[in-house]
Amino acid sequence: MKKLYLSIAAAVVMAILPAGISAQNNAQNNTQNNTQNRLTDKELYNAIWAMGQMYPDGFTLDISTMRQPTEGIVVSYVATQNSFDKKSIPNVVKHARANNNVVGGWYNPENGKYYFDSNRIFPEDSLAAAVQFARDNDQHTVYIASKGINLWTNYEQKDIRIILDTDLGSSTDDLFALMMLYRYMDMKRCNLIGIVVDRMGRANADIADIMNNFYGYPDIPIGLETNGIPNPHVFISYHNLPYARSTDAEVMFKRTVGDSGTYMEGYKLYRKLLAESPDKSVTIASIGFVTSLARLLESGPDEYSPLNGVELVRQKVNAIYAMGGVFGDAVEPDYNFKAAIDFSLKFFALWPKDVDIVFSPGEVGDPLDYRPETVISDMSWTDLHPIKWTYQYLNCDTGQKMWDPQAVINAVEGDALYKLSQRGFVTLTPNGETIFTPNPNGNARYQYPGDPVWCDLVLKYIRLMAIQH
Ligand SMILES: [Ca+2]
Prior knowledge:
By secondary structure, this protein is an alpha/beta fold. The protein is about 35% helix and about 20% strand. The protein folds into two domains: about 10-150, no CATH class; about 160-465, Ribonucleoside hydrolase-like (Inosine-uridine Nucleoside N-ribohydrolase, Chain A).
């Protein structure tokens, strides 16, 4: 359901009420139920109806205080969802009084109807519970009052199986992309079936291990590239994060694999996970080097599948969302493909031309600047937090732009949040340039950068995920 709740002052509501009541309550309106008790039911219904007309994009109203909630996650009850027009308002109010004293409404210009409903408000750090409640009440969206954004609940959504392919251990946007996936898991919006760490070095896989544990998914399998590119540039060296200790020398973050365990080779984990998955069920989010992907595509039959890598991808993968590439008028250099150019050339040559690939160029995430002080502030709810630790103890003045989450969000949300190019084919030059050739039968598209409103919305979305606990 479309909803856009506006932040109007209670005074505006009062302006539509009888003068005497308006004056009294503008002066002193702190007592719960005070306002409602002073209104007759008919006056309350008229006020709600008037708000629906004044704010056709939507409103939320606490009828015990006649104020708009300024924070909270607003979810509608299914019981009142077919409440059209003025005659339905008494029933909505009755339900609201019996439950949470919150009503909302909006106008649908497509059918000329006003919709009113009774709402429940959850704390903003309880997104998973709010989404579950929304699903139980057949609601497509929840509304975040403090941020002015709607989130999809996708209650009818099928299982999306995600494999994250990441170069953990350098820029911190990989950490945020991974965080988003766990929070999507909390909301049951995807199933993260595996993490492939394509940056060589055991510590980088250990980072995935502590992230899995911290976010409550200790058993998500992790693969590690062992034959990728040697010594790629490190922007922020947070490889010591898995072994952080408190001032009392206590190990801060749990691991599942630990010092004695081993990680599966990255492309082998791909083969295992793909072989175990239904056809066309897996979406890959690639936010690092395509080293393990190139090795997967070059692989032959093994104990997991009689198919070679290309055929396995063709049969099992629905789409890949890849952070990288430079398109259109963009001038910024690509890092991910160029840094691993030999692997990237193999990847582009072998990736099946009938399996979709959506590129997220750097310019999409560029304006989404999640400042270090904001990160630490958003994570003020705990001191035991791997991302917060990184920001507290390392210099994170570089690398905090939210590039990688764009591939992950697009992979889970689908295309609704992004403006994508027309279809075409993309080839890679030995210099690392991505060449796009339009073709309606092409498998490739790329994200266009969003406008400032869009960038603001998506950054708020990422920040909302960071406060969940
Ligand atoms: Ca990355």
